[in-house]
Design a protein that fits this description.
D-Maltodextrin-Binding Protein, domain 2, alpha/beta, single chain, 22% strand, 42% helix, 334 residues, 2 domains
Length: 334
């Protein structure tokens, strides 16, 4: 009898281990396996063995394909930009709210806060029969505006100019509409190409994209990078809970928090590598105008349910802790 129970127990353990074996994680990186995001996920996959997983990474350079394959069940988890992952968890995805995170210090505070244990319930989303959980957030960097003509040096001069935006991120369209530019719907796989080939005059991108996507081709001798961050770009690791061991997401999130100093050092290095000749500063008046437009857009999008209101309050507190004299710190809202 005891022998039979022992055999059943062993079989149960084997079956349990098999049920959590070989999780397929689809990873988006513009540079494929050569990119920093993919390299980060390779380190994570090794660490995940200690939490009971046996991960198989699948590399993608087309983010829309990641989303499609995840929906079709070909992936048990994905790692892609928060702008697209927001549909699976609005709380974490709202870190990338337009103008919400104006520098790296606030970005690091925001990511650390979101991944804290006190927010574990907010990081689980039930959609229909499926349960999704945020198991990590990685920093990609602040996105800056690039213009093909440095004469587009204030908001008024952006009016009527073609601006490439990611079609699935409604927030970008709102921002572009508010400055009077013409939104040109694009994919993350082709928006820089449109800029380089003069199909659009303006684009927003992080330093991560500068060298590999050869943004300097679009800048030529007349273009510039407006040295004012409009959005902070992160990437979310979203898992299907029933495909991973119970409690898996918590150690995974803490692992991502420990990687943040290294990730931010990488971002700073990439920003420093952009030649100074391209960088153009906005006047203080124009910076204030941008901040007000982004704030109005952010508040409007929160009312529409695009952004999470709790996250907007958190981000405002973080901004006003760092920049106490900012105009928004003395006005109500968010």
């Amino acid at each position: 009898m005891r022998k039979g129970i022992l055999i059943l127990s062993l079989l149960s353990g084997v079956m349990s281990a098999q049920s959590y074996a070989n999780q397929k994680v689809c990873v988006f990186d513009l540079l494929g396996k050569a990119g920093e995001s993919y390299k980060l996920m390779e380190e994570w996959s090794l660490a995940s063995k200690a939490w009971g997983a046996q991960v198989q990474l699948i590399s993608y350079q087309d983010e829309s394909k990641v989303d499609k394959d995840f929906k079709e069940g070909k992936c048990d988890a994905f790692y892609m930009t928060s702008m697209r992952a927001r549909a699976y968890n609005k709380f974490a995805g709202s870190i990338d709210a337009i103008g919400g995170v104006p520098n790296n210090t606030i970005a690091q505070k925001a990511i650390t806060y979101v991944l804290d244990k006190r927010n574990s319930k907010r990081l689980i989303t039930n959609l229909g029969k499926d349960s999704y959980e945020v198991a990590g957030i990685g920093q990609i960097g602040s996105a800056y505006i690039f213009v093909r003509d440095r004469n587009i040096n204030n908001l008024e001069k952006a009016e009527g100019k073609k601006f490439a935006i990611l079609h699935y991120d409604y927030a970008q369209k709102v921002m572009v509409d508010r400055v009077g530019a013409v939104p040109v719907m694009s994919e993350i796989s082709n928006f820089i190409r449109k800029f380089n080939q003069a199909e659009v005059e303006i684009v927003a991108a992080p330093a991560y994209a500068f060298k590999p996507l050869e943004i300097s081709k679009g800048l030529g001798t007349t273009g510039a990078m407006v040295n004012f961050p409009v959005v902070n770009v992160t990437a979310d690791l979203i898992i299907r809970n029933n495909k991973f061991p119970e409690g898996f997401a918590e150690p995974s999130r803490q692992w991502f928090v420990k990687q943040l100093p290294k990730s931010f050092a990488m971002v700073k290095r990439m920003e420093a590598e952009i030649p100074a000749k391209y960088k153009m500063k906005l006047s203080k008046d124009d910076q204030l105008k941008y901040q007000k437009i982004l704030r109005e857009g952010r508040m409007d999008l929160t009312k529409q349910g695009i952004y999470d209101s709790t996250m907007m309050t958190v981000l405002k507190k973080a901004r006003c802790t760092i920049e106490r004299t900012n105009f928004e710190c003395s006005v109500a809202g968010e």
